[in-house]
Design goal:
Layout (H helix, E strand, L loop, with lengths): L1 H18 L17 E2 L4 E2 L10 E9 L2 E2 L8 E4 L4 E6 L2 E12 L2 E7 L11 E8 L3 E7 L6 E8 L1
Length: about 160
């Protein structure tokens, strides 16, 4: 009986891992990857499109007009279909979360690395300015007179 339970648990784990792979189970080039609903920002998991697939680098980070791109030099970012984003540099890995949604008639990319330096700087709800298979350009307008932040990812 114990063997049957263990085998059943392994089977369930395998089915779970296969059923929501990094590629869409229906077609390879469509924008859906996984079906379901993610309550974190009212976005469906299907909005986690193939646009985010692959490895990315930060090619611009401007904090209220000050160029701080060098803080992210050498990091390779990877977005997963399960809402995890990793940043890897020289064997060091920082893990965060991401989701795509809509707020106030603006498409948004929500990034959350917590307060880990320097990634806390890009933990925010970013408005998507431009998005292609090779470029993601984002902006965040701070309240009051604090200015605008710009974040650009380019596919490696």
């Amino acid at each position: 009986m114990k063997k049957v339970c263990i085998l059943f648990m392994i089977f369930l784990f395998a089915v779970t891992m296969i059923s929501c792979d990094d590629e869409c189970p229906v077609c390879h080039e469509c924008e859906c990857i996984c079906t379901g609903y993610d309550n974190s920002h009212g976005s469906s998991k299907s909005s986690r499109s193939n646009y985010f697939k692959g490895n990315w680098s930060v090619t611009q980070y401007s904090d209220r007009g000050s160029d701080e791109t060098n803080q992210f030099a050498g990091y390779v970012f990877t977005f997963t279909s399960r809402g995890t984003i990793t940043a890897v540099k020289a064997g060091s890995t920082v893990i965060g979360s991401w989701s795509k949604g809509n707020h106030g008639n603006h498409d948004k990319l929500y990034l959350d690395f917590g307060t880990t330096v320097p990634f806390g700087e890009i933990t925010d709800d970013w408005q998507i300015i431009e998005m292609s298979h090779t470029n993601i350009r984002l902006k965040e307008v701070s309240g009051g007179s604090e200015g605008t932040d710009i974040l650009t990812f380019e596919k490696n």
